[in-house]
């Protein structure tokens, strides 16, 4: 009987048709975008290398596509909380509206993360453009991201946020508020813990490329197991150590381009480098 109350059991029991269809459709749409070779709406490198005239349109498409990515990656991990909130919201005057507002808070928080991450990536691209030495060693950046993400996996903050994410009933007992405004506040609060739990892994996604569906699926699986599996906590340090080791190896093996120039084969995605006097823009 105890197994029936485990997080994974609640997840399986709560996988209602609406969420299942939404998640499946989101993954299908991302696959279509990749097959049709539309990197500008998925890949941050392509976005940052877009011509200035088309940048506003590309950014709007990026934000819109990010909603699809949030549905694909975060809805499965947040489903135990969504189901728990749905149960307690049934006694309110407008349960469907309340549930929609609560869910929209997740999308708002993760959209904010995407905008901040994209802005930080733009600053990093400018730094690389200004440093030929760094432009020739893009693996240093990727390795650094992996190490940082791995260290965060081992931090007390990760543990605290994960605890809140794995205990929907306890969270609602403490933070639940009635009404539409209360649903928004409660949703933002829990989405903040969700962000605190998963932001480093999502940053890895930016490092490997948001158009890499294999990496996205792997990261989704890790976050899903961490937050819903009964033994998910045991996976956290394993992933952390693996990321630190992988990042350290990437950094230790990083080296300049063989010809001494930052050519297109060695430059980071989206970076402009000098190749014998010619400016080469490498797509993401």
Automatic annotation (TrEMBL):
Keywords: Membrane, Transmembrane, Transmembrane helix. The keyword rRNA processing does not apply. The keyword Transmembrane helix applies. This is Putative metal-binding membrane protein. InterPro entries: PpoB2-like. The chain crosses the membrane at residues 18-36, 56-79, 100-120, 198-223, 235-254. It holds the Pfam family PpoB2. The lineage of its organism: Bacteria, Bacillati, Actinomycetota, Actinomycetes, Micrococcales. It comes from the Bacteria.
């Amino acid at each position: 009987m105890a197994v029936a109350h485990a997080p994974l059991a609640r997840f399986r029991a709560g996988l209602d048709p609406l969420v299942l269809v939404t998640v499946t459709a989101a993954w299908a749409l991302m696959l279509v975008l990749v097959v049709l070779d539309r990197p500008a709406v998925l890949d941050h490198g392509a976005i940052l290398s877009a011509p200035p005239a088309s940048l506003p349109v590309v950014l709007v498409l990026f934000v819109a596509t990010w909603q699809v990515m949030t549905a694909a990656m975060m809805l499965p991990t947040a489903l135990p909380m969504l189901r728990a909130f749905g149960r307690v919201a049934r006694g309110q005057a407008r349960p469907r509206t309340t549930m929609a507002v609560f869910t929209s808070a997740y999308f708002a928080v993760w959209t904010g993360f995407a905008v901040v991450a994209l802005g930080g990536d733009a600053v990093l691209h400018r730094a690389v453009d200004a440093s030929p030495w760094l432009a020739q060693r893009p693996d240093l950046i990727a390795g650094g991201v992996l190490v940082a993400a791995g260290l965060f996996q081992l931090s007390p903050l990760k543990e605290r946020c994960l605890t809140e994410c794995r205990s929907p009933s306890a969270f609602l007992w403490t933070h639940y508020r009635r009404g539409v405004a209360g649903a928004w506040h409660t949703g933002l609060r829990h989405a903040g813990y969700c962000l605190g739990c998963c932001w480093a892994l999502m940053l890895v996604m930016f490092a490997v490329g948001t158009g890499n569906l294999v990496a996205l699926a792997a990261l989704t699986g890790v976050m899903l197991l961490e937050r819903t599996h009964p033994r998910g906590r045991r996976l956290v340090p394993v992933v952390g150590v693996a990321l630190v080791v992988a990042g350290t190896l990437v950094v230790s093996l990083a080296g300049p381009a063989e010809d001494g120039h930052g050519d297109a084969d060695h430059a980071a995605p989206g970076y402009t480098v000098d190749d014998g006097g010619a400016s080469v823009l490498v797509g993401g």
